[in-house]
Amino acid sequence: MKNKELILLAVVLVVTLVICFPALHNKFTNWDDQDYITENIYIKSLTHANIGHIFTKSMATNYHPLTMLSLALNYSVSGMEPFSYFLVNIILHLFNTLLVFYFVFLLTGRDRSTALFAAAIFAVHPMHVESVAWISERKDVLYSFFYISGLIAWILFIDRRRWSWYLAALGLFVLAGLSKPSSVVFPFILLLIDFLFRRKFSFRIVAEKIPFLAVAAGIGIATIYAQIGSAVADINNYTLVQRFLFASYGFFIYIFRLAIPAGLSAFHPFPVTDRSLNLPWIYFLAPVINLVIIGSVIYSLKYSRMLMFCLLFYFLNIALTLQFIQVGSAVIAERYTYVSYIGLLAGAGWLIQKVSGHYRIPGGYLYVMAIAFFILFAVLTSRRVAVWKDSEALWSDVIAKYPESATAYNSRGYFYLKEKQFDKAFPDFSKAIELKPSYLDAINNRGSVYRQMNRPRLAIVDYNKALSVDPTFVVALSGRGNAYFTLGILDSALTDFNEALRINPSVAITLANRGAVFFRMGRYQPAVQDCSRAIALDPYYTEAYLTRGVACSMLNRWDEAISDYSFALDANRDNPSALEWRGIAYRNKGSFTPAINDFSAGIMLNPRNPSLYINRAMAYRLAGMHQNAVDDINAARKLGANVTEEALVAALDQGNRNW
Q1: CB of 158 within 8 A of CB of 193?
Q2: What pLDDT does 518 receive?
Q3: DSSP string spanning 33-102?
């Protein structure tokens, strides 16, 4: 069949869509999604200020403005509904599969079979699930789209000598760089393509790369600036020998898992946390295996440059993440293979074709073998997609693979904490602390469990423990301040919030919490000021609006209060407390009809709250609807309120409109 490879490619795309489809129903996770989406105020409105921030500041410890802009566009379409975010990731992955086909097609002298093999395995390889089913890895699928397109443009420039393709390659590289810093190696891949296509080395060859190198330098500088003190860890954490072994292990294990994708996990912790060489045997064997692989590829240069190109393509695209310089807290990460595997797949497909030709193996056998691998990987990928369903499934899978991972227990516990499943959160945090006694996040999080279970004194014990390790741990200071607030020890709460804000004055939640302390102290103007500062930092922080609204009510600033309550209610209409406070504000400014409407809406949500009936009765009375007021008073009395019509009338006669 003349176009059988293209028909099979279409089948590959359909199968890929089918196995990725369940991801459309997945949820956000607590593995970076909070930094990229759920707690990122800059993607929630496409204002000039937010777009300017996206393009001029680092976000989530990286500089990738196009990625953040794409997430902002998703938010403008579907808000916090994950469906559209996953849909874009899947669509980009399908386009990338097509690009891989065409890229390998051009690399191999228009060999459709090798291109189909590479694209098919790329599409369904289990190691690539992380890049597609994890919303925060939008940067992977987005930069890959521009990156592979740019490489294709470069090959077309070499082939057709049209400068429009050169400019296209440069422009696509810029877009890739604005999507993910990993694209910084692009100029070196161009040199590698020149090597494969046997372009004679000359000044012109070097000069062609100067604009690309300039862009790469800019990307590198922006990335280093963004990661200062964050993603890139202190290289003194591990010795030079350890880092060499980590890098050797990574180089080997990625190649191994191309063929045997076993033991996959969202998180692969370092095998040791100290500077010892108490490592698994594979770390010492990996350098030897790597030497054999490299030696074999060098030997193959006698016959072809293809395998050397493919191995160097793999290495250059994986080199920056091989942990010779420690990045993050994982020794390897499956997402790092998304682009680098293209080189290995192209090499594997090319080698299979050459070996089968040499030994005259019928093509039908090769197709059966390729289809078998494709089906196997598709099944494994389908299972990995389910792992990314939510944070509980994700971290439970990590714990199954790495039962000694304190990070995994803490992260799953944090999911339970947010879901108010305290009976599950507590043992996870305790296990994390058992595995790593000085784990500040876990200690602080267990304190938060105690506090939310209304056991503030036990919470203070954990917060004190965290602060004994790091007295500047702002989250623990704020948590202890909240525990003191719950106990009514307002001076101590204020002291903790003041210290937290001295260390970091730009934390919205701490400002709002101090505002709540000021309110409880009867210091309403400072409460308004703190909440206003919190809102300036996070314009979507509804709790700050509520606290400021109540403080404005106490200052008889009814219009400001109503505006704040309205903002909070726009974010969540099912808040009877906010409805009651706004009703009070309307009533006190003489707007009785909207006041009655708010009290009625609050009663619909919480019909067992007597104060809602009393406040509505006052509004009815002031509006001249006396029988309605009597009915509400009787309803409040049935709920246990100690109120009479005479007392309510007397209060109103004295000018008291607050009950």
Answers
A1: yes
A2: 98
A3: HIIIIIT-GGGS---HHHHHHHHHS-BTTB--HHHHHHHHHHHHHHTT-THHHHHHHHHHHHHHHHHHHH
Contact 129, 99 (CB under 8 A): no
171: its two tokens: 């422009």
Residue 645 and residue 130: Cα distance in Å, rounded?
A: 65
CA distance 314 to 321: 12
Q: How far is CA 576 from the centre of its chain?
A: 32
What is the set of domains in the chain, with CATH numbers?
577-659 (1.25.40.10)
Are 88 and 138 contacting, i.e. CB atoms less than 8 angstroms apart? yes
- Residue 329: the pLDDT is 82
Strand partners, 268: 332
Residue 271 is predicted with a pLDDT of: 94
Q: How far apart are CA 530 and CA 516, in angstroms?
A: 9
Half-sphere exposure at residue 398, Cβ-oriented, CA atoms within 13 angstroms: 23
Q: How far is CA 591 from CA 442, 599, 620, 643, in A?
A: 49, 13, 11, 24
Q: Which tokens is 523 given?
A: 């210091």
Report how far apart the first and last C-alpha atoms of the chain are (Å, whole number). Answer: 84
Which tokens sit at 348?
């594997």
Contact predicate 493/482, CB 8 Å: yes
Tell me the β-bridge partners of 330.
269
Distance CA 483, CA 531 (A): 19
Contact yes or no for 173/64 (Cβ under 8 A): no
E-strand ranges in 266-423 read 268-269, 330-332
Collect the ranges in the chain with pLDDT lower than 70: 1-2, 227-236, 363, 653-659
CB 633 within 8 A of CB 613: yes
DSSP state of 398: H
Residue 62 φ/ψ, nearest 5 degrees = -150, 165
Residue-by-residue DSSP string for 328-356:
TTEEE-GGGHHHHHHHHHHHHHHHHHHHH
Rounded to the nearest 5 degrees, what angle is found at the Cα of 263, between the Cα atoms of 258 and 265?
Answer: 100
Q: What's the pLDDT score for residue 234?
A: 46
Q: Which residues pair with 332 in a beta bridge?
A: 268
What does the pLDDT read at residue 462? 97
